Amino acid sequence: MFEDNDQNHEEHPPKKRGTLFSGLRTSFLTGLVVIAPIGLTVWLFWTLVGWVDNFVLPFIPDGYQPETLLKDIFGEDTAINIRGVGVVVFLLFTVFVGWIMKGVIGRSILNYAEGLVEQLPVVRSVYNGLKQLAETVFAQSETSFEKACLVEYPRRGIWAVAFVSTTTKGEVDAKIPREEPLLSVFLPTTPNPTSGFLLFVPREDVIMLDMKVEDAAKLVISAGLVYPNGKDGKSGQKVAKSLEELAAQITHKPSGE
């Protein structure tokens, strides 16, 4: 009994180091999810303004150019550009933003800012699209899918690739009249896997796949053309055959020609 306690104490410091690294990683990814849509939205509109400036400014006399006026007011400016400093500042700023946004104050500020964005028709569409893209690309491992699986959908005898989110919990699990454990399964659409259906399926009706979640996602996105490498080494032949058949259908020629 005491030996077990000693072992637990000995293993505790590595867990702390792992927890610190995981916390920094989580803060960084959270910061990316917040910064990416905002930064890309600002960049798009800033680029649009730049295009307009490049078209209009040549028609303005040199004496009235904005750069000339600013130099007359503030004097000559010296720019210092050291490569790498911007990357360090960006990383620190991103971690700081992610840490702030995980708190109550940060979420309140973000909700208030998003409320203002929702009132701007064009900006709202751009921001929401970029936000969804950022949340998909920078999804954290803590909320990623556990396994790829097969479920019968939309009817018995037809199988679809899906992803296991977690075991069904809470009110949903309590209200479904079944004794078997349920799994929360996400069934994506093809070729856009960011949309789909959330299904609560009995564990016995789910067939787990050995392929990685990333490989299953490629299978869905490619509409079945790209298969993960199988242990028998025949997957490449199947993919080549599928591509050949697809090309033959497009050109209206037999696949053997």
Automatic annotation (TrEMBL):
UniProt KW Ligase keyword: no
Transmembrane segments: 26-46, 80-101
Pfam families: DUF502 (PF04367)
Keyword Membrane assigned: yes
Keywords, sorted A to Z: Membrane, Transmembrane, Transmembrane helix
UniProt-listed PANTHER family: COV-LIKE PROTEIN 1 (PTHR31876), PROTEIN LIKE COV 2 (PTHR31876:SF26)
Name used for this protein in its record: Membrane protein
Protein species of origin: Actibacterium pelagium
Biological classification of the source: Bacteria, Pseudomonadati, Pseudomonadota, Alphaproteobacteria, Rhodobacterales
